[in-house]
Amino acid sequence: MKLEITEIKHKVKNRITIALLYLVIIALIGTYLRFMFVNDHGIYNFQYLLHSHSHVAMLGWVFTSFYILLLYSYLQENLFSKKYNVIFWLIQLSVIGQLVAFAVQGYAAFSIAFSTLHIVLSYLFIYYFYKETKNNALLREKHRLSLKFIYGGLFFLLLSSIGPWGLAVIVINNMAGTDLYKQAIYFYLHFQYNGWFVLTLIGFVLFYYEKKGLTFSSNWAATAFNLLFWANIPAYTLSLLGFEIPKFIWIIAFGSALFQFIGLRYLVKVLFPFREAVTGNMSLWCRRLFYVFMVSLSVKYIFQLLSSLPYIGDAAFISREVAIGYIHLVMLGVVSCGIFFLFSVNNLINFGAGLIKTGLWLLLTGFVLNEALLFYPGFIIWFQAPVLTHYHFSLFVCAILMFIGAGLIFSSHFRVSFKSSSLAKID
User: How far apart are CA 241 and CA 370, in angstroms?
Assistant: First the structure.
């Protein structure tokens, strides 16, 4: 049995290498996009590259990591079964196709075809995963709470796909570039970022707690889920605050943001009493990643609440940098650090040794500085703060730090994974 578990870990580490390669690719594209603000003589179409960057980030780096972790955590015995293998490799084909197609032609026939393939494959994965976990009574009993959040995340993954389908109808009717077109994109992004990503990560954290045999307060846990799940549906209105909208939409947006913030507080009340028992056995870097994830998650919900206030929220819609800052807070602080924590706590990556630790330092340093710079225009709007000189060059330097950091993490893990695989074959 130990040999089988060891073999599974080797294969999982190899697949994690693919996810980390996507991280390097999006960091490289992000660095080039920042370079185009410093030197406007770029040879590629900015908008096309931006589409490639965002799609590979969500559907390559995040989706692939979640796919691996969901099966590794809940259905380990089926991780490399035929159907999941086929879905996994077809997903990689669709991601590579989007990487190239979006960079070359933007939203057009090939990029839409590969995006559609990814959506259909995600439907298949949701169906099989839900069916097999629901039919496992022992699994459902042991991991009841974490699966509730996981199912919630999968629901929002399913719901988010309405956005791309709606986008196709909008384009066919020659309405590209209209407010409705933008709102369909925001629909997709909202339920990906604030639903699928966040609830799934919380589910993974709770899964780790459950593995420790901890018993949660059922009332607090149910309240946390209900507030975070149900309030996220009307929270889509937060994405509409930059448009000409009736005043009652602002009230709905504020209410949903407030309820989600309260939901976060209940989640902390669920997790907090066990923090010493859970984090005490973690490595130093594992604990650090966990705290960065939790702090970033808290800041995310605080920013959502602030953005629902008319004067303060104006900066998020007037300043493009502030909006990008929020996206990077979620993608890097919440999601990427959450994924790194999960890889670390499952002993799939060791962030405490050699160049991989240096890479993580550089990535986190670049992330923190990048966030400070991206949110700075908000202070210019709110407090008439002075304009920074060399602003875009500073952001370019942050992008370089994150690219180098991602590269070191990938290359270090690749060497370790390749070496482990070679030793496993010898054994």
Answer: 25
At what angle are helices 82-105 and 2-38 packed, to 10 degrees?
A: 10
Domain count, the chain: 1
Are the CB atoms for 408 and 383 separated by under 8 Å? no
Q: How far is CA 309 from the centre of its chain?
A: 25
Top pLDDT among 286 and 174 is at: 286
Tokens of 327: 């996206």
Other beta carbons within 10 angstroms of residue 419's beta carbon come to 10
Q: Does residue 204 lie in a domain region?
A: no
Global confidence as pTM: 0.94
Residue 219 · residue 286 · CB < 8 Å:
no
Closest to 409 in 3D by CA, of 359, 364, 361, 343: 359
- Tokens found for residue 121: 């494959």
Helix H, strand E, coil C: the string for the chain is CHHHHHHHHHHHHHHHHHHHHHHHHHHHHHHHHHHHHHCCCCCCCHHHHHHHHHHHHHHHHHHHHHHHHHHHHHCHHHCCCHHHHHHHHHHHHHHHHHHHHHHHHCCCHHHHHHHHHHHHHHHHHHHHHHHHHHCCHHHHHHCHHHHHHHHHHHHHHHHHCHHHHHHHHHHHCCCCCCHHHHHHHHHHHHHHHHHHHHHHHHHHHHHHHHHCCCCCCHHHHHHHHHHHHHCCCHHHHHHHCCCCCCHHHHHHHHHHHHHHHHHHHHHHHHHHHHHHHHHCCCCHHHHHHHHHHHHHHHHHHHHHHHHCCHHHHHHHHHCHHHHHHHHHHHHHHHHHHHHHHHHHHCCCCCCCCHHHHHHHHHHHHHHHHHHHHHHHHHHHHHHCCCCCCCHHHHHHHHHHHHHHHHHHHHHHHHHHHHHHHHHHHHC
Per-residue pLDDT tens digits for 165-213? 988 888 888 887 788 888 999 999 999 999 999 999 999 999 998 888 8
Q: Would you state the pLDDT for residue 427?
A: 45
Give 247-253's long-range contacts (Cβ < 8 A, gap of 24+): 250/308, 250/310, 253/308
Q: Does the residue 46 lie in any domain? A: yes
Residue 345 belongs to a domain = no
Q: Let me know if residue 310 belongs to a domain.
A: no
Tell me which of 2-16, 56-70, 184-198, 276-290 is least confident: 2-16
In this structure, are residues 314 and 381 in contact, taking their beta carbons and an 8 Å threshold?
A: yes
User: Which domain, by its residues, includes 106?
Assistant: 1-142
